[in-house]
Amino acid sequence: MPLIENIIRPDIRALAAYHVPDSTGFVKLDAMENPYALPEQLRAELGRRLADVAMNRYPVPSYAALKAKIRDKLGVPGGFDVVLGNGSDELISMISIACAQPGAKVLAPLPGFVMYAMSAQFAGLEFIGVPLKADFSLDKEAMLAAIALHRPAITYLAYPNNPTGTLFDAGDMVEILAAVGERGIVIVDEAYQPFAQASFMPRLAEFGNLVVMRTVSKLGLAGIRLGYMAASAALLAEFDKVRPPYNINVLTQAAAEFVLDHAAVLDAQAEAVRAERTRLSAALADLAGVEVFPSAANFLLIRVQDADEVFANLLRRKILIKNVGKMHALLANCLRVTVSTPHENALFLEALRASVF
Ligand SMILES: *Cc1c(COP(=O)(O)O)cnc(C)c1O
Asked: Which end of the chain offers a freer environment for a tag, N or C, measured as fewer CB atoms within 10 Å?
């Protein structure tokens, strides 16, 4: 169609649309969602709170109350600011746009979160991927060499990493922060922080180029779309200029403020998921033909003989996980499964036992 060829960038035309499979009727273990709902009484209270929201008004774009709650309840150190995003996806996009000078580059270990490379491409930035080691730890020497060669404006380190679950060595990360120095920012993406119980947030004061990015998605609020990043106020003021002014809607704002007042409920759910991770990981390790990797997140990466076949067998048994076997050479025959409730984990294990031979 000439119209499309005339106006749409060739690199966009060449892309396949981001595919989200229809999960109706499946045990859904593909997207790292928290399987637990809020307790009944809190849900009723939330409903009353949302009923009072002025949906006829635009949000107040400073989001002062929500930001104060995030700083207070989620451990942002004093003197540092936060910027909110419609999910961390939007924060990544804002960072890319703000840094997209001619020749600017983005660096991240691979396999990693796909949005880093996609967002770089959309903004016209060159993406440099540095392979992890075979055990999914950081290849520190290769990272340092790539930093010296490419001088990236943006370096992403997911802590822990998706889709491997690896919690990178903090000492290696500090060396990367130092090597990047004043030439670039290092985004430590802590989407899975509630399950890792390790964080660079308390270390913001040590590194002027550090941005700590988080989301409430994996904590149990994936549907409301809220991410935040913490860094020095001067740096964040620049990113805030490219933020769409009303990017957080009033319902999300009210729901997040409400839930943060009851953060202990989500903390307890995360603790239950961590306990299940330990149990599920041990059960998987006992299965012949299954290799399970250490994970500090709410999912486990496993390797089987034939990932395509196991994935298809699980689908037939109405279990949806993620086949990451074709994502990167290091992930050959790997599958990623979300840690869920004891019941859903048992369903997965039973189906997996019947699917591997
Ligand atoms: C899931 C995930 C996110 C979350 O993105 P949202 O847009 O906030 O839902 C960010 N980073 C990583 C590494 C993730 O796995």
From this structure: N
**Domain of 68?**
55-262
- The protein residue whose alpha carbon is closest to atom 14 in ligand 1 is 191
- Tell me, using a 6 A CB cutoff, whether residue 119 lines ligand 1: no
Is residue 277 within 8 Å of residue 296, measured between CB atoms? no
For ligand 1, the distance from its centroid to the CA atom of residue 297, given in whole angstroms, is 12
- pLDDT band for position 352 (50/70/90)? very high
pLDDT in tens, 207-253: 999 999 999 999 999 999 999 999 999 999 999 999 999 999 999 99
**Whole-angstrom Cα distance, residue 201 to residue 229?**
10
- Output the pLDDT for position 204: 98
Residue 268 and residue 140 share a domain: no
339 in the same domain as 195:
no
- Count of structural domains within the chain: 2
C-alpha distances in Å from residue 240, one per residue of 220, 245, 350? 26, 9, 48
Same domain membership, residue 122 and residue 252: yes
Decide whether any atom of ligand 1 lies within 6 Å of the 215 Cβ: yes
pLDDT tens digits for 106-149?
999 999 999 999 999 999 999 999 999 999 999 999 999 999 99
Ligand 1 centre to CA of 143 (Å) is 22
Residue 175 and residue 232 share a domain? yes
Ligand 1 near 162 CB (within 6 A): yes
* Residues 239, 41: Cα–Cα separation, whole Å: 38
Q: What's phi and psi for 186, nearest 5 deg? A: -115, 120
Omega within 30 of 0 (cis) for the link into 160: yes
Same domain, 143 and 288: no
| Contact between 164 and 299 (Cβ < 8 Å) | no
Within a domain: 94:
yes
The whole-model pTM stands at 0.96
Indicate whether residue 209 lines ligand 1 (CB < 6 A): no
To which H or E segment does residue 130 belong? Answer: strand 126-131
Cβ of 338 less than 6 Å from ligand 1: no
- Report pLDDT for 177: 98
Q: Is 191 in the pocket of ligand 1 (CB under 6 A)?
A: yes
**Ligand 1 atom, smallest distance to 112 CA:** 13
Please tell me whether residues 92 and 214 are part of one structural domain. Answer: yes
